[in-house]
Structures are given as C-alpha cells and as structure tokens.
Design goal:
- By secondary structure, the chain is α+β, with helices and mostly antiparallel strands.
- Helices cover 45% and strands 8% of the residues.
- The protein contains 21 helices and 10 strands.
- The protein has a 4-stranded mixed sheet with strand order 4-1-5-6, with helices on both faces.
- β5 and β6 form a beta hairpin.
- 40% of the residues are buried.
C-alpha cells in the first residue's frame, strides 16, 4: 500500500534551493552512475584506442610505402603482326569484358580511316597505313571480324565519311609536322564514361578493373591505340615485321591522373569516416542505455513526480554526454590532424564537435521512442552505424538526394570528412577558413562544400532536439502523464479533463459544495457513495480541506481481446483534511496504488479531477509535484548511488538549500534508522532498509 501523500501546508511551494543547485546534484548523479559502470568504460576505451590506432598505423604505412616501380600493366593480346585487334586482359575472370568495339562492328561500323594519306604518294603516314592494314586485318575477342582500312586525304574527309556513310569505326589523323603523333576519332557511344579522380590510380600491376580507367581498356580503345603505336615504331625504326619485339606489353594510366598515394593511404581515406562512426555509435550506445534504464525502472518518473522539470533532466543528460563526448572530440581531432595534416585543425575539431553535439541530440530523441534499455540501445546503434557506413562507400548519388541525406547527421559527417580527406590528399592544400566554402575537386560530394556539411549538422541538432521535446510529451514512458499529439496547438493542447468532469470546483478547493462533492458528473454519472468514506472528525474538518478528489477515474485497456476496459478507479470522490491522517484501505486491485499514482502524475487521469491546496490536478500538475512527497509501492532507487547521495539528490529537488542539504540528509537518515548506512550503496541494503530510504526520500525537502 502506498504511504500517504505528504503535502505542504501552503498552496505555493517555497523553494529555497536554486535551479543551479538542482542542476548540480542531478548532473552529479548522472556522472557518478556513468563512472561507476566500469565495464562500459573499459569497452569504450578499448574500442576507441584500437580503432584509432589502426587508422594511424595504416596512414603511416601508406606514407612510407612510396610509389610502386613502373611495371607492365594490362597487356593487349599478343601484340605481334598477324594477330587480331583484341580487347583481351591478363585476368579475364575478374569480370566480363564489354568489348564495345565488337558491338560497334555488329552495328555496321567496320571501317577505320587513316589521314592524311595517299597510296600513290609514298609517305610516313602511308607506310603506317600499309602496316596496319597488313598486320591487323581483323577485330574480335569472341570471334573474328574483318576490318576495312581506308586511306583519306584529310581529317575533314574522315568527318564527311562518318556523316555520310555511317560506317566508320574510327578515324586516325596524323600530325603533318610531327608524323609520329596522331589522334583517334571515334563515335561518342564508343567512349567510356570518364570522371577525374578516384583512388585506383598508378597501382602496382596496372589499373584495377573496377577503376574509372578500366572503361578505356574494355572498350578496345587501348588495343587500337597500342596497335597504331606499334606500327609507328616499326615504320620509324625500319624494323620491318620484327619490330613488334621492341614492345612486348604496355602500362596504362588514365589522364589527367592524380598524384600518387600508396594503396594503404587510400584505404585510410575510405575507412576513416567509417571508423569514426563506429566508435561514436558504440560510445553513445552507453548514453542511451543510461537514459532508458531510468525510464525502464521508473526512476525518471520518480524524479519528475518529485518536482524535477523534464527540461532540466534533459539538459543534465545532454551536459553529461557532452562532457564524456569531449574526450572523443579531442582524440578524434588529434587523429584527424594526423590523417589530414594540411587541413586547419580548428576545422577538424569543429566538424567533430558538431557531430558529437548532433549525436547527443539524437540520443535524446531516440530515447523517447523506447521503454526498455536493451531494445532501444540495440536499435539505436544499428540505426546510427549502418547508414553511415553504407554511405561511406556510395559515390553515385544525386546531389539533391545527398543534401537531403545530410539530415541524418552520421551521413553528413561522413560526407564532410570525405571532403576534408580529398582536399588534403588530392588538392594538396587542405581545407582552411579561407576556402571552407569552396568546392573540393575530385570529391564524391563535389557539389556539397564542407561548410554546407557543418551547417547541416547544426540543422540536425535543432531538428533532433525539437523531436526530443515533442516525443517526450506525447509518448508515455513506464508511467507518467502525456499530452495529445497536437498539444502544441492551443485548443488541442488543453487537458481532456474539463470542469464538467470534476474541475476545480472553487471555494478554496472544497469542491464547490462546502467540502462535499455532489458526486454526479453530467456526462458520466457516478453517484458519490458516502458509505465507503469515513467521515472526518470535527477538529480535522475545521482545519479545511487539503486534498479534494472529485469523481476521479482511471480506465486501463481490456486484458483480453474484445473485453471491457478495466476500471481501476471508478468515480472516486474524497476530501482529505488538514490535521488528519487519511488511509486508503481495500483489497488487492481496489485502486489504492492507482489513486496515489494519479494524484502525483505517475499515471494519466481518464476522468475527474482533484484539488491539492487549491491547485488543479488537470492544470497545475507541475506545481503540485513540488508540494507533495510519495513513497512508492516499489523501491525506486539507483543501485549505483549511496544512501547519502539519494537524500542529497532529492533534498535539492525538493527545495532544501545547498548549505542545509548534508545536515538534513544525515538527520533524516538517522531518524529512519539508516544513520550507520549513510555511505552504503542502495543495492547492498536489505529490503527493509530500502523501504526506510524510500520513506526518507518522500519526507525530505521543504
């Protein structure tokens, strides 16, 4: 059975402790709980040190490796006279070649023109033309297709032939002044897609097949170019048909190409944002666990019914997480400066700090969606980690979509960090305050600046905080009162408890009927039953009504499908007088605990109302909570706090001045028989001692 409410004797609570004192003690509670969870601290420390050490090691390895020696890359299928012009690769099993030239051939384009060329006039170009026609008469990887080589006087003749006949596969134009130089002209459909940048450049062994340059290989253009070069070499060296032995293979690099960085360095660039996301997700997982553990055990509601404002509770949590997150900010900035040395360190710090702040806001918003710590923490971790990691490897996204995805802060951080790395490694100047608004060339997010990413992190923080405020008002925890979904609108936000359902009643809280409530509600008539209430004696009645309950109702959903609602409290009306101890007696399930929970706001009221020293339960709940103390049926205590720390915390919330908190806490502990247990953790107390501590928490304060 609940211990009776312990109301103050005035309608206006007199607090002597300031908001600063309350904030200090609630924050101290959060920090102590966090520091006393040794397992979580060790786990976070090990993961942070390990992941950052891997990044630093890979970065050092990439810098020390140096550029690879110039070795043959992709080799064009045996480049000796008489063989077909092919798009063969040394490792064809890695993927299926496109063989674009073969597709062009099948569409009727089978002719290759050479200019300036006249078979009747001997020249260098004519000799090359003859060599090509003799040594490369066919095209094909899966089959042999005859090629037609023609000789045309000028480049314009090649263009005219292409427009009129539509049969040209390619046009080869030699320079008049330097005949060994030539250019190739092909249909646009034959050209591979091209984008500058990327990371797969100048690796040992040639171009990886998944790089942006591989399109030049599998289209057949490299084979054509290499064959022409061999012909030029043979003609220029007068080596005849044996000239092919001068060049056995070829290394290929797409141009314009970027400065060399070792493969390990590129790996760091691709995984660094992912590591940051993983570390932050695991670190902040313990944050949301702390918040949800209090909600799951009803400790949050215990604080709220004692008069702690929800906004202050949220601020203390945010401050706690920022203090812990500051360690990540510093370490991540130091590691970031090692990875991207040319970028201004203050920009790295600001980016990391904005990311951490947004994660704190996200934790507060996510915590409103769940009631249990295990489910909420697991869901949150995957929700943060997976999108950030996946986005780290996605490059081909519409710019507008990218900007929209930045509303999820892990993605915004990944995109911005990638830009910092690109500016450092490719532009070789890094990001500074002078160019923070400039587009980073070579970046996958090239249309989104670093400053835009930072701005979006600020927007994310505001958005998440707004969601946290809204969701905590409309989604119930394990107990507590809630508001309508549209509570922010004036009409919708009003309480669903109206005066007709037992409103203020007037007359100093006496129910508007001389301390007696008529007991009839116009919409839901429930007769007032005097037989179930023991009349107050004359002395108590003379002191006036302190608590007046009027047609109070609480209905719970049916326990079985299709059943009737459970009426835990059904039209209770009762006056409690000053100077009188009022006890609620009844069998199990009679509604005693529910009534006390309704009067303190631990449960929403279905109907009716109550006045507590002139304050309405339906309109003045926050003020009422500062006036009353409650000893709940179950012990709602923190295992990680001592007896003294419990009393100090609730003493501050309940209005005890800072200079008197310790003295009053020790005195109250002695009075309830816990004087010798003042420094003991609550988890080490016996059941009886825990009840004593719960009583003391209900009594402490002004």
């Amino acid at each position: 059975m609940e211990t009776p409410l312990v109301p103050q004797t005035t309608a206006t609570p007199a607090r002597t402790s300031s908001k600063r004192v309350i904030f200090k003690h609630v924050l101290r509670k959060n920090i102590k709980i966090m520091l006393r969870d040794k397992a979580a601290l060790r786990r976070e420390m090990i993961i942070t040190v390990l992941y950052f050490a891997i990044l630093i090691g890979l970065n050092a390895l990439g810098k020390s490796s140096g550029p690879p020696p110039l070795v043959p890359g992709h080799t064009v299928n045996p480049l000796v006279p008489g063989n077909t012009l092919s798009t063969y690769f040394p490792k064809p099993g890695l993927f299926s070649p496109i063989d674009t030239m073969e597709q062009e051939y099948q569409e009727g384009r089978t002719t290759i023109a050479v200019a300036p060329c006249d078979t009747t006039v001997p020249s260098f170009t004519t000799a090359v033309y003859s060599d090509l026609k003799t040594n490369y008469p066919m095209l094909g990887l899966y089959g042999d297709y005859d090629l037609t080589w023609i000789c045309l006087p000028t480049q314009q003749d090649i263009l005219d032939r292409a427009n009129l006949n539509q049969d040209l596969l390619a046009g080869i134009v030699f320079d008049n002044d330097q005949p060994t130089l030539f250019s190739m002209h092909v249909n646009q459909t034959l050209m591979p897609s091209y984008s500058a940048g990327g990371t797969n450049v100048s690796h040992s062994g040639g171009i990886p097949v998944n790089s942006t340059a591989s399109g030049w290989l599998d289209s057949g253009l490299v084979a054509l170019q290499h064959s022409i070069q061999l012909s030029v070499i043979r003609v220029a060296s007068a080596a005849g048909t044996n000239g092919a032995t001068l060049v056995q293979d070829v290394s290929f690099r797409q141009e314009p190409f970027l400065a060399y960085r070792g493969a390990e360095a590129f790996q760091v660039g691709s995984i660094a944002p992912m590591y940051y996301i993983i570390i932050m997700a695991i670190t902040s997982q313990s944050w949301i666990k702390m918040v949800l553990a209090e909600k799951e055990k009803q400790l949050r509601e215990r604080l709220l019914v004692s008069g702690l404002p929800l906004w202050m509770l949220a601020i203390t949590w945010a401050t706690t997480f920022l203090l812990k997150g500051s360690v990540f900010m510093v370490v991540a900035t130091v590691v970031g400066k090692i990875l991207i040395a040319k970028t201004d360190v203050t920009i790295i710090f600001l980016l990391v700090a904005l990311f951490v702040v947004s994660i704190v806001a996200m934790v507060l918003a996510f915590s409103a969606l769940f009631k249990t710590a295990k489910v909420g923490a697991t869901t949150y971790t995957f929700a943060v980690m997976i999108p950030g990691v996946v986005f780290n490897y996605i490059t081909d996204i519409n710019v507008t979509l990218k900007g929209f995805l930045y509303l999820f802060s892990p993605i915004g951080f990944v995109g911005s960090f990638q830009q910092l790395f690109t500016a450092d490694q490719y532009d070789h100047q890094g990001v500074h305050w002078s160019n923070i608004n400039a587009v980073v060339s070579g970046s996958n997010n090239s249309s989104l600046t670093v400053s835009f990413g930072m701005f979006m992190l600020v927007v994310d923080t505001v958005l998440y905080l707004s969601l946290a405020i809204y969701l905590n008002q409309i989604i119930p925890g394990n107990g507590g009162t809630t508001k309508a979904c549209c509570y922010c609108l004036k009409k919708c936000g009003k309480s669903n408890i109206s005066p007709s359902n037992g409103g203020n009643g007037g007359n100093g809280g006496n129910g508007g009927n001389g301390g007696k409530y008529s007991g009839v509600d116009e919409e839901n008539p429930v007769p007032y039953n005097n037989d179930v209430v023991q009349p107050a004696d004359e002395i108590a009645t003379g002191h006036g009504v302190g608590v007046s309950i009027k047609n109070l109702q609480k209905h719970f959903p049916a326990t079985v499908s299709g059943g009737e609602k459970v009426k835990a409290v059904d039209g209770l009306s009762l006056d409690m007088y000053d100077g009188q101890v009022t006890s609620l007696l009844g069998h199990n399930g009679a509604g005693k605990t529910t009534t006390m929970s309704l009067l303190t706001g631990m449960l929403d009221v279905t109907g009716g109302d109550a006045d507590i020293y002139g304050l309405s339960l339906s309109h003045d709940l926050d003020e009422i909570r500062t006036m009353v103390g409650i000893c709940t049926q179950h012990n709602l205590l923190w295992d990680e706090l001592t007896v003294l720390e419990h009393l100090q915390l609730f003493g501050a919330i309940r209005g005890t001045s800072e200079r008197d908190i310790d003295a009053k806490a020790n005195e109250l502990a002695r009075q309830v028989g816990l004087g010798d247990k003042i420094g003991a953790y609550s988890k080490g107390l016996s059941g009886g001692m825990k009840r004593k501590l719960s009583v003391a928490l209900a009594l402490i304060g002004t």
